[in-house]
């Protein structure tokens, strides 16, 4: 039986952003309130509650003072902002940009229609958090329409404009628009404000439901989007089942099924769909190769990266889920040589998801580079009956793993953990997203002082051989110039830019420099520019190892968790000498040979974007 997770299912950007902000604030403060469930999924809500997020209702919100409160992706009406101001509440605003833009459009249209006694119509679910926020933009006067039956509330003689809740269907909106066009006598406009991330899910999930014998749809019971998408699945495939957690699975659903599809709402976390998939496998006794592998070791090697702990957690718990023994190997390959092992239980990896660094610690091992050192490591594995390894690190880690598995026929699977994002065969490595956000936060602060003093800052970021951090963070911070190893950039070219762009139009500036740029580091380049332009007030800031630290972002946690599960799955499927990666949201298997020998290239489109936006 084949099982496939819907590649289009899972958190939308708005939900990821809200969770990311919640986790970021909880890592600094042990108290954060949220008006309503941050996402319509009780398991994810409970996870965040364990971290300290407290869910409250609007009535409770009115009584809170001088606290920090998160406004979730659904958005809030103006009254909530007024209450916050009055009660000196620190707002963590995670309103989805799509919803925020819609609120502004409705507010503007309401002001114009008010002049001609017009009316705002909103296609949406009455009482839904997003709809409440939209109605609030009209001082509560908008008419909410759920079905065509509600059209009796509309006055056809008044000028009207129709908007939609972002998570409704295009079919429903188009039907409502057609009915209104038939009855309206006064001027009428319809605005399609449905989020395409949601709208596109309907045709995509229809295709997905047709591909499989059985569909398991995972969603919280409160999710409107979940109910809508499940109804679509059920309409296409009658063998569709709605569940909220692994315990809801009924093994009888899969009798005689050759393929099973696992999908979910935009509020369904990827890790939960992975857990559901593993539960289905376990219940049906498929894809579990237990004949050879009984005990797995996991280690982290090379430079640490935020999210490594999330990967360790996923490896440990997936091994336990599959009834395997699991040992943590401390200090990387050095610990493998010295037998620095610890038997891991589920509770050993509790409360580490949000922590930076690695609980197993990391080290570079010169001895493992030798045949004798690798022989010692192999003997330790034999003595401790360790059958396979999961290694978390970068190209150096994988080079060692490749040689080790060739010499001793040990199954080894790698998880890409490096902030540089320079590994071939995966779109993202663990730690990259967090490192970028760390750089962005630092550069935003530096820009404040640059503007205050009319200074030109050269900011050096990590990237000895690759400019991924510099390029992406440079675009995100509006840097005037970005210098990376992949691009032939010389001091004269930079000077020409400064003469044409900076000198004529800028009073302050930011130049992002990857440490491995061919023109030299930030200090070298700054000195050369200073010689040519002594009139510039130049400063240099090297961000250094702060980019490696900090609590991992939601994206890194989800990526690490996904790859941790995939690594153990790969071992149980008799894979070895491969890296598990993520390409277009799907897990891929890439041979160590391929990821080591091939060089990942930066996208020319990003270089062009920076060139355009830095004028």
UniProtKB/TrEMBL annotation:
ADP binds at residues 313-317, 447, 478-480, 506-508. GO terms for molecular function: 4 iron, 4 sulfur cluster binding; 4-hydroxy-3-methylbut-2-enyl diphosphate reductase activity; 6-phosphofructokinase activity; AMP binding; ATP binding; fructose-6-phosphate binding; identical protein binding; metal ion binding. Belongs to the phosphofructokinase type A (PFKA) family. ATP-dependent PFK group I subfamily. Prokaryotic clade 'B1' sub-subfamily. Belongs to the IspH family. GO terms for biological process: canonical glycolysis; dimethylallyl diphosphate biosynthetic process; fructose 1,6-bisphosphate metabolic process; fructose 6-phosphate metabolic process; isopentenyl diphosphate biosynthetic process, methylerythritol 4-phosphate pathway; terpenoid biosynthetic process. Isopentenyl diphosphate binds at residues 40, 74, 128, 223-225, 267. Residues 295-571 form the Phosphofructokinase domain. The active site is at 130 (proton donor), 420 (proton acceptor). PROSITE patterns: PHOSPHOFRUCTOKINASE (PS00433). The keyword Magnesium applies. It catalyses: beta-D-fructose 6-phosphate + ATP = beta-D-fructose 1,6-bisphosphate + ADP + H(+); dimethylallyl diphosphate + 2 oxidized [2Fe-2S]-[ferredoxin] + H2O = (2E)-4-hydroxy-3-methylbut-2-enyl diphosphate + 2 reduced [2Fe-2S]-[ferredoxin] + 2 H(+); isopentenyl diphosphate + 2 oxidized [2Fe-2S]-[ferredoxin] + H2O = (2E)-4-hydroxy-3-methylbut-2-enyl diphosphate + 2 reduced [2Fe-2S]-[ferredoxin] + 2 H(+). Pathway: Isoprenoid biosynthesis; dimethylallyl diphosphate biosynthesis; dimethylallyl diphosphate from (2E)-4-hydroxy-3-methylbutenyl diphosphate: step 1/1; Isoprenoid biosynthesis; isopentenyl diphosphate biosynthesis via DXP pathway; isopentenyl diphosphate from 1-deoxy-D-xylulose 5-phosphate: step 6/6; Carbohydrate degradation; glycolysis; D-glyceraldehyde 3-phosphate and glycerone phosphate from D-glucose: step 3/4. Its cofactor is Mg(2+); [4Fe-4S] cluster. Dimethylallyl diphosphate binds at residues 40, 74, 128, 223-225, 267. SUPFAM superfamilies: Phosphofructokinase. Keywords: 4Fe-4S, Allosteric enzyme, ATP-binding, Cytoplasm, Glycolysis, Iron, Iron-sulfur, Isoprene biosynthesis, Kinase, Magnesium, Metal-binding, Nucleotide-binding, Oxidoreductase, Transferase. Homotetramer. GO terms for cellular component: 6-phosphofructokinase complex. Substrate binds at residues 418-420, 455, 462-464, 515, 539, 545-548. Its EC number is 2.7.1.11, 1.17.7.4. Catalyzes the phosphorylation of D-fructose 6-phosphate to fructose 1,6-bisphosphate by ATP, the first committing step of glycolysis. Catalyzes the conversion of 1-hydroxy-2-methyl-2-(E)-butenyl 4-diphosphate (HMBPP) into a mixture of isopentenyl diphosphate (IPP) and dimethylallyl diphosphate (DMAPP). Acts in the terminal step of the DOXP/MEP pathway for isoprenoid precursor biosynthesis. [4Fe-4S] cluster binds at residues 12, 96, 195. It comes from Marinifilum breve. (2E)-4-hydroxy-3-methylbut-2-enyl diphosphate binds at residues 40, 74, 128, 166, 223-225, 267. This is Multifunctional fusion protein. Binds 1 [4Fe-4S] cluster per subunit.
């Amino acid at each position: 039986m084949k099982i496939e997770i819907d590649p289009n299912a899972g958190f939308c950007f708005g939900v990821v952003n809200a969770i990311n902000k919640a986790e970021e604030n909880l890592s600094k403060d042990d108290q954060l309130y949220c008006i309503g469930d941050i996402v319509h999924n009780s398991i994810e809500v409970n996870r965040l509650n364990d971290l300290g997020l407290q869910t409250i209702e609007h009535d409770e919100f009115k009584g809170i003072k001088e606290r920090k409160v998160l406004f979730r992706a659904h958005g809030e009406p103006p009254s909530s902002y007024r209450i916050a101001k009055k009660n000196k509440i620190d707002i963590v605003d995670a309103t989805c940009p799509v919803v925020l833009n819609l609120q502004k459009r409705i507010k503007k249209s309401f002001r114009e229609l008010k002049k001609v006694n017009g009316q705002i119509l909103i296609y949406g679910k009455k009482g839904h958090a997003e709809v409440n926020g939209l109605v609030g933009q009209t001082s509560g006067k908008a008419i909410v329409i759920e079905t065509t039956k509600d059209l009796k509330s509309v006055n056809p003689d008044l000028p009207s404009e129709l908007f939609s809740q972002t998570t409704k269907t295009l079919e429903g909106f188009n039907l409502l628009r057609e009915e209104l066009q038939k009855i309206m006598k006064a001027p009428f406009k319809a605005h399609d404000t449905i989020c395409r991330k949601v709208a596109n899910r309907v045709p995509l999930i229809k295709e997905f439901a047709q591909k499989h014998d059985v569909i398991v749809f995972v969603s919280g019971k409160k999710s409107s989007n979940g109910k809508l998408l499940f109804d679509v699945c059920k309409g296409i495939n009658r063998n569709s089942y709605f569940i909220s957690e692994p315990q809801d699975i009924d093994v009888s659903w899969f009798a005689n099924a050759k393929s099973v599809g696992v999908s979910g709402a935009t509020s369904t976390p990827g890790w939960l769909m992975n857990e559901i998939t593993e539960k289905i496998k376990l219940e049906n006794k498929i894809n579990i190769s237990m004949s050879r592998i009984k005990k797995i070791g996991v280690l982290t090697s090379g430079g640490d990266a935020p999210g490594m702990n999330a990967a360790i957690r996923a490896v440990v718990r997936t091994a336990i889920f599959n009834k395997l023994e699991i040992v943590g190997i401390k200090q990387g390959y050095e610990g493998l040589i010295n037998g620095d092992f610890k038997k891991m239980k589920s509770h050993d990896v509790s409360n580490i998801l949000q922590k930076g660094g690695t609980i197993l610690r990391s080290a570079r091992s010169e001895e493992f580079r030798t045949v004798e050192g690798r022989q010692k490591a192999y003997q330790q594995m034999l003595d401790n009956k360790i059958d396979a390894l999961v290694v978390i690190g970068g190209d150096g880690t994988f080079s060692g793993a490749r040689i080790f598995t060739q010499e001793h026929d040990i199954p080894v699977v790698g998880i890409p953990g490096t902030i540089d994002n320079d590994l071939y065969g995966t779109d993202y490595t663990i730690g990259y997203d967090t490192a970028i956000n760390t750089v962005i936060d630092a550069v935003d602060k530096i820009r404040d002082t640059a503007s205050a003093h009319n200074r030109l800052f050269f900011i050096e970021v990590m990237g000895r051989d690759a400019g991924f951090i510099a390029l992406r963070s440079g675009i995100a911070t509006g840097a005037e110039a970005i210098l990376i190893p992949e691009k032939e950039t010389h001091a004269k070219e930079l000077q020409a830019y400064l003469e044409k762009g900076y000198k004529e139009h800028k009073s302050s500036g930011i130049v992002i420099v990857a440490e491995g740029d061919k023109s030299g580091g930030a200090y070298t380049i700054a000195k050369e520019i200073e010689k040519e332009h002594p009139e510039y007030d130049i400063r240099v800031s090297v961000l250094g190892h702060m980019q490696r630290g900090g609590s991992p972002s939601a994206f890194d946690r989800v990526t690490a968790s996904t790859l941790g599960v995939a690594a153990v799955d790969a071992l149980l499927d008799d894979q070895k000498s491969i890296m598990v990666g993520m390409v277009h949201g799907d897990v891929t298997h890439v041979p160590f040979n391929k990821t080591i020998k091939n060089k990942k290239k930066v996208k020319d489109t990003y270089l062009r974007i920076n060139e355009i936006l830095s004028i």
